[in-house]
């Protein structure tokens, strides 16, 4: 595995391999000194063309706990403002000597494009409406931790599916691991076609909730209001928000997930976000270990290198 | 280096073919029993001991060692397991993937840690283990028990307790389990 560009490139076996590797890094993060020398002498750089605090911090913590050196690149203070192209920026960063570049970009496919230009490993940290593979991996890991396995589990993904790279990556990852996925959203926020997606779509959340093991809430973005896809936030909350009343409809062991940052009072009620079954903080914690596993797999496992036969 | 290590590590090496049996199961049991006595003697009892088996070959020996220590001293020391993959010096040179999740749920500060492995060869695994142990605290002492010391050290590392010293050629392979110890060669599949 040279790059991680999307869940679409991974088999169920690849995903399971990365989740097993994550178990080891969860153990590392629990040590008194939670750091291993595995990627000593390697350098990881960020190329973030979109604001993101949590994903960037999570990758940075992962790289540091593997003893890799990090080079941070912030678009707002860089030559991109002066009109440098993505290709020139990527080649410049690579020329400084980096082994992996973590890319976030508002255009779908930008990380794949960077991977064609540079010889370093590229990790997609979110591109347009396309994919966010490390988010899906940490969601799978959290679900496995909470529910034992994803096989045969029923998951509802609720919210703005059409514009969500998290939803795309999650649908691919969850279904590959054997989960049954139901998308719940107003029809304006569903993709125009679900062809090729092994999922069902429903509009009525109350109808879906009693039958699921996990509810995955997506962040409701305010700009969708101005696009007139949803009349008002209050109406969205009334029909698709996870309120206390709706939680009562769920199985008592079912969990609530959210990729963050949460809009308390919109897609999730403030008191629901603080229930023990809401595992949002566990997702963030597992995110560091998952990203350690990804960086180790790309840079440290030796699998990207030619292995001579004995 | 990578080549030799790979040959001595079963998953990467092909098929092991035994030539001679060096120890049988009873010899192994007696050697563990003797090493357990030596550990108690050297440390004036078993009070502060923590036994850590190295994944994967050292773990069954460590478990037997703990049983022996319990019979001798009346109390079983805690048993941990350690996978040193992330601390190895050949990461990036060969596939280095961990096997089982490390299990050391204690602070090792002030303890006497006895590392247990099946075969001591170049010493690089033990170098990595010493590095790893210190991420769990600062032990009072770290000691090393191995079933077989086959020589060919590449680092200044020596064992404190040895089941058997076994002179070998570099290209030979030692297979040590609780059922016995065999000396032989590794063959690629199909040869």
Indicate the low-confidence ranges of chain B by residue numbers. Answer: 1-11
Distance between the termini of chain B: 23 Å
Please report the number of helical segments of chain A: 12
Total strands of chain B: the figure is: 8
Lateral arrangement of strands in the main beta sheet of chain A = 7-6-5-8-9
Compute the average pLDDT of chain B: 90
Query: Helical percent range of chain A?
Result: 25-40%
Describe the biggest sheet of chain A?
5 strands, parallel
Fill in the CATH topology of chain B. Rossmann fold
Can you describe this structure?
The complex is a heterodimer of chains A (310) and B (191). In chain A, strand 3, helix 4 and strand 4 form a beta-alpha-beta unit. Helices cover 39% and strands 14% of the residues of chain A. Chain A has 310 residues and is α/β, with parallel strands linked by helices. Chain A has two domains: 141 residues, Rossmann fold, CATH 3.40.50.1370; 147 residues, 3-Layer(aba) Sandwich (Rossmann fold), CATH 3.40.50. Chain B is α/β, with parallel strands linked by helices and 191 residues long. Chain B contains five helices and eight strands, in the order H-H-E-H-E-H-E-E-H-E-E-E-E. Chain B has a five-stranded parallel β-sheet with strand order 3-2-4-5-6. In chain B, strand 4, helix 5 and strand 5 form a beta-alpha-beta unit. Chain B is globular, with a radius of gyration of 16 Å. The interface between A and B is medium-sized, with 27 and 30 residues.
């Amino acid at each position: 595995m040279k790059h991680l560009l999307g869940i679409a490139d991974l088999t169920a076996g690849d995903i399971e391999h990365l989740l097993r590797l994550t178990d080891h890094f969860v153990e590392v993060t629990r040590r008194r000194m939670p750091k291993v020398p595995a990627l000593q002498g390697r350098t990881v750089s960020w190329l973030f063309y979109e604001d993101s605090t949590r994903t960037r911090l999570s990758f940075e913590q992962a790289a540091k706990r593997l003893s890799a050196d990090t080079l941070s690149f912030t678009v707002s203070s860089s030559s991109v403002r002066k009109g440098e192209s993505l290709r020139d920026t990527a080649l410049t960063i690579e020329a400084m000597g980096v082994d992996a570049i973590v890319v976030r970009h508002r255009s779908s496919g930008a990380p794949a494009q960077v991977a064609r230009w540079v010889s370093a490993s590229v990790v997609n940290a979110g591109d347009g409406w396309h994919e966010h593979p490390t988010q899906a991996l940490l969601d799978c890991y959290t679900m496995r931790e909470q529910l034992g396995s994803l096989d045969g589990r029923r998951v509802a993904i609720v919210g703005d599916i059409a514009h969500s790279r998290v939803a795309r990556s999650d649908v691919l990852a969850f279904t590959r691991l054997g989960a049954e996925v139901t998308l719940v959203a107003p029809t304006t926020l569903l993709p125009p076609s679900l062809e090729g997606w092994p999922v069902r779509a429903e509009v009525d959340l109350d109808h879906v909730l009693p039958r699921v093991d996990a509810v995955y809430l997506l962040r409701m973005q305010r700009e969708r209001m101005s696009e007139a896809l949803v009349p008002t936030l209050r109406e969205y909350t009334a029909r698709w928000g996870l309120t206390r009343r709706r939680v009562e409809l769920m199985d008592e062991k079912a969990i609530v997930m959210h990729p963050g940052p949460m809009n308390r009072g919109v897609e999730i009620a403030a008191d629901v976000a603080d229930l023990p079954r809401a595992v949002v903080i566990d997702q963030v914690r597992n995110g560091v270990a998952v990203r350690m596993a990804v960086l180790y797999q790309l840079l440290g496992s030796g699998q990207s290198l030619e292995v001579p036969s004995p | 280096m990578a080549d030799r290590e790979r040959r001595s590590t079963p998953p990467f090496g092909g098929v092991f073919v035994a030539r001679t049996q060096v120890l049988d199961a009873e010899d192994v049991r007696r050697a563990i029993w003797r090493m357990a006595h030596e550990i108690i003697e050297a440390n004036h009892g078993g009070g502060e001991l923590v036994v850590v088996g190295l994944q994967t070959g050292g773990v069954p020996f460590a478990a037997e060692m703990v049983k022996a220590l319990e019979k001798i001293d009346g109390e079983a020391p805690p048993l941990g397991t350690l996978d040193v993959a992330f601390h190895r010096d050949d990461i990036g040179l060969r596939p280095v993937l961990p096997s089982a999740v490390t299990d050391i749920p204690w602070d090792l500060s002030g303890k006497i840690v006895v590392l247990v492995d099946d075969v001591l060869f170049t010493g690089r695994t033990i170098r990595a283990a010493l590095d790893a142990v210190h991420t769990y605290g600062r032990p009072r002492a770290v000691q090393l028990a191995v079933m077989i010391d086959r020589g060919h050290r590449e680092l200044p590392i020596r064992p404190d307790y040895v089941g058997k010293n076994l002179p070998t050629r570099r290209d030979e392979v030692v297979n040590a389990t609780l059922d016995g110890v065999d000396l032989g060669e590794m063959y690629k599949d199909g040869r």
